[in-house]
């Protein structure tokens, strides 16, 4: 009985210390029907006491999803995006964002896009992101 109680207490302690990732305000940019890419934005919040990293992403709307950052007007791919303990990372136009590359079909305002985020510690989190008209920022044109 003591072993069972200690095991339960240890498991509860481990789960309490894990990151607690929440995703808010996700949306995808509407693009012209001739475009084969778009961008997704959101706020990723870690309410836990341990940092976590976004290490991969996938979507039903595109063949490729990559995290990029705008630095001095240029885009660069980010291999992993750290979300600090008790902090957040905002993916927004002109900053960090997700590129949806090789779209499966044109995205129109009102469509819903499913994005699966894969975190190093928290595992997979599925997000539903509505497609909205563009709100400023930059887009890649070199794919």
UniProtKB/TrEMBL annotation:
Q: Which Pfam families match?
A: PCuAC
Q: What is the scientific name of the source organism?
A: Hydrogenobacter sp
Q: Superkingdom, according to UniProt?
A: Bacteria
The alphabetized UniProt keywords are: Signal
**Name of protein:** Copper chaperone PCu(A)C
Gene3D superfamilies, sorted: PCu(A)C copper chaperone
Keyword check for Coiled coil: no
Q: Which InterPro entries match?
A: LpqE-like (IPR007410), Lxx211020-like (IPR058248), PCuAC_sf (IPR036182)
> Which interval of the chain is the signal sequence?
1-17
